[in-house]
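dumping these here so i dont lose them again. two proteins, back to back, each one seq then structure tokens. dont judge the mess
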Amino acid sequence: MELTKTKEQLFLKRVRILFGRGIIVKICLVIILLFIFAAIFAPFFTTYTPTEQFLMNILAGPSKDHLLGTDQLGRDVLTRLLYGARISLFISLLASIGAATIGSILGILAGYIGGVIEQVIMRLTDAHLSIPPLVMSMVLAVLMGGDMLAISVVIAISVISTYIRVSDSLVLSIKENDYIIAVEQIGQKKWKILFKHLLPNCFPPLIVIFTMNLGVAIMIEASLSYLGLGIAPPTPSWGNMVADGYKYLIVNPLVALLPGFCIILIVVSFNIVGDGLRDALDPRLRGKL
């Protein structure tokens, strides 16, 4: 019966086992799901809007009306945290999907076709890797503006090189396998080999990178917003909430500390879940579950 199981079934089984035994991974996965749930159903958790002001109740502490207090303009902190989660998670997801899709295709093409195409793609990738993602994001954000789509594109461009490099190295090893050589010998078209045989075998490591880059994207978005290059006020973003709130740490520290804590919590959770996926996919760790 075990012999009839597909690779996908075995992978899912290992992930279930890992998440079932690893309490830290399980907690982090729950945290991520809670953030996503809160972001999607934000209007059901608050009766306020993120830009609604209560000028008679500025920098107030937690109360019955405002569970986490208000900011310097009298806006409800809980409401802005919930709607800020929407911005951060949406940008992170959109940027990571774009980078993973385009980067993986470029890397697979470079690794499989080789020659001049590989040299051009990989040399550009090497140059890209020499620039820190945040520095590149800052430059591109200045040029492209601070709306959600522009920031998503900026972050995608900043992290795309990782996918290109990894997928290229994977294809270089996979294409030497006997089954790839066999389908080439029977005359199967190259695009079918790319998307039917090479791409599926690159998925596991790329999924790990994708999960971890979700946290990286959130950090970059928050950093850009903090520096005034990302999402512009009054639209709530965890980064600009920290930037606005740090000036009032003595009066009401929750205004700055809560969005900062949310950033740390979600980024660490994505990294730990990514590590868990890596352990589930690494054949060297199969006897350690």
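---- next one ----
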Amino acid sequence: MAGCLDIDRAGSVVELGGGTGSITRAIVAAGVVPGDLFVIEREAALCDVIASRCPGVRVLRGDARDLQSLLRHAGASNVKAIVSGLPFLSLEKHVGRRILNAAFAVLAEDGEFVQFTYGLNPPIGRETQAALGIVGRRSGWVLANLPPAAIWRFRRTASASHERCVA
């Protein structure tokens, strides 16, 4: 997933659902400056794990549905990418929509929402994509995962040129 990010482009990266920090570490290893990475995690114990494993990364305890407020209070601006491991396929539809609305509200006009999923279908359904004015494309597989994971990239319809990424 980190291979999908445009490291040379200025701006912040947001990770939704940091968990134990494995994706966070990969994002930093790919070249994102720790101070430009904001990780949203709602579990306090996991926030502590991420903070200890990823010095300099800005770990924000909260719910992804409150993304706009969390980032505003943290001083984040110019969000070029959002990386998510949230389980959209198992979230209630209204919860997923609220998270996606918040994500695209903070994402730069030409920004990208990168999502991994274990399902064969898009993690964001076609109806929701149409309602949000976004389009997605599977751009890679992480075959080392068991089960293998698919990487999807979503952009606003007007900026929907996609490239393949290194998984």
